[in-house]
Amino acid sequence: MLDEEMRAGRRPTLKTIARLAGLGVTTVSRALHDAPDIGEETKARVRFLAEQLGYQPNRAGVRLRTGRSHVIALVLATESEELGINSQLIYGISEALSASTYQLVVMLHDPAADPLGPVRNIVEAGTADGILFARIEPDDARVRFLTERGVPFATHGRTDMGLEHPYFDFDNDAYAESAVRRLASLGRRSLALVGPPPHLTYARHMAAGFQRGVKALGLREIPFGAIDTDSPHELIQAEIYRLIESGERPDGFVCGSAVAALSATAGAEAAGLVLGRDFDVVVKESSNLFRKFRPAIETAHEDFRAAGRWLAEAIVGRIEGTADVGIHFLDVPRLAAPAEMPVETPVETKEKAAVGGA
Questions:
Q1: pLDDT score for 9
Q2: Domains along the chain?
Q3: CA–CA distance from 275 to each of 71, 267, 268, 288 (Å)?
Q4: pTM, whole model, 2 decimals?
């Protein structure tokens, strides 16, 4: 029977899996939906068969039966990809969703356009059961809109709105203060921050940690012109070069992105300075790029793949009503300090509410 179906080019169905597994169709369906009363061995066998057969649920049928699309939309800005950050986030989400009935759809939008537009279109068209998005603002129109509409969502980042919603965030306040302390331990006294665009929430967090560290240690802050981590790398490099040539010479840089760190380093080196002798750089990164190619640059790891996994579990939990609206995870950074120079992290681990053990 199976061979006949394959030769006829028909898609495998729940009945196909049920016949091969020697189970009822209802049991197969419940196993694919991770029902708690189905044994793990049975679930594993059913999932294996489904994967081998290339089984895909009939989305139209599922929607008719459940009222759900079983689609999760990830909304990303087209220019926010930096050294694989978006791909790591997508990989983590896809990894967590692989054993579920949900599919991920990535929607790109122009960061210069209204960020509410794509979210509103998804909701009005009913094309997804839940929405994930990033680059969060302190008063974010998307968060307010989705909260008012009662649509499940989760964010990479948080607001200052006082509205409870699921989020995964990196503690940029703690990162920046730790970075300042590291630079001070290396003898650096005049520091500059190349931070995120000021309209984003995490830019405020990073600036607050940086300024607190500078003040506490009696260091000097060297202000920049109108550049941030979204600025073209040529502009960041030129501004660093101009700053050094003007006599306002920073000897330490705290950077909010890998590209900013590379650009700042290039600008300082173009002005004749030597990394590790005349200046030092601290950056948060999501890969091992600096350890491999610029080991003199100090790093703190930000795990976007883990963030993606957590966000996927959170949004599924919100859709299915198994996760609280206030769940969140605050990832506290640890600088990759050399063994001979331990640096105290100034902010202790903060409250973490995990989903499914994340």
A1: 53
A2: 2-56 (1.10.260.40), 66-164+305-323 (3.40.50.2300), 172-301 (3.40.50.2300)
A3: 48, 11, 8, 19
A4: 0.77
